[in-house]
């Protein structure tokens, strides 16, 4: 049973009437089927205030003032991976309070995008290639490449960001590789669609890609 459940005016009056009739707190509690703390609360309130009406509660000032919220927003716009516990410790509140404040400010908890970050040289070269071959007929071209998939030491990470900013550089988690587990694959594609995906055995990883994959394809 809740210690201070909401009582009607009739129930509050019954507490006072039963005390006036000579019952003690335990007897009133049993008679009205309510906790001793509730009985004591209303007896004390009646004795001190002379009333059985509930006093209006004064609103508590928010821990997260507008200035604090603006400061958090500024930090997360530049450093989205900042743990919420840091602000919780600084403002002497719970991490949930910080998370609620960020959500109200339009900043949401998201999983980061993971990819290899391109340098300016990479970006320039890709744009140049696209422009140079914009009108080229790729229908008779085969694109081929190999890829090494490596295990990562990065666990589950989250960040705080506004919507529609997933691939902005500050919101992207670079691919860090531990090298503990390595799987090498080779594949090709053309205008007609994707080709085969071929696993490159460890003993063939030092050989030229094309001869290695021809051998593997023959084995298939």
Characterization of this structure:
Helix content is 40%, strand content 17%. The protein has 3 domains: 9-49; 66-106; 113-219, no CATH class. By secondary structure, it is an alpha+beta fold. The protein has helices spanning 9-20, 25-32, 36-49, 66-78, 84-91, 95-104, 120-132, 209-219; strands spanning 108-110, 113-115, 142-150, 159-161, 172-174, 182-190, 193-199. It has a 3-stranded antiparallel sheet, covered by helices on one side. The chain has a two-stranded antiparallel ribbon with strand order 1-4. A two-stranded parallel sheet has the order 2-5. Helix 2 packs across helix 3 (36-49) and helix 5 crosses helix 6. A hairpin with a 2-residue loop joins strand 6 (182-190) and strand 7 (193-199). InterPro entries: Homeodomain-like_sf (IPR009057), RNaseH_sf (IPR036397), Transposase_Tc1-like (IPR002492), WH-like_DNA-bd_sf (IPR036388). Residues 90-135 form the Transposase Tc1-like domain. It is found in: Nucleus.
Number of helices: 8
Strand numbers in spatial order across the main sheet? 3-6-7
Share of helix among residues? 40-55%
Q: What structural category characterises the helix and strand content?
A: alpha+beta
Q: How many domains in all? A: 3
Main sheet makeup: 3 strands, antiparallel
Task: Please indicate the percent range of residues in DSSP E strands (runs of 2 or more).
Answer: 15-25%
The count of β-strands is 7
The run of helices and strands is HHHHHHEEHEEEEEH
Give the termini distance in whole angstroms: 72 Å
Rg computed from alpha carbons, rounded to a whole number of angstroms: 34 Å
Main location: nucleus
GO molecular function: DNA binding
Subcellular location: Nucleus
InterPro entries: Homeodomain-like_sf, RNaseH_sf, Transposase_Tc1-like, WH-like_DNA-bd_sf
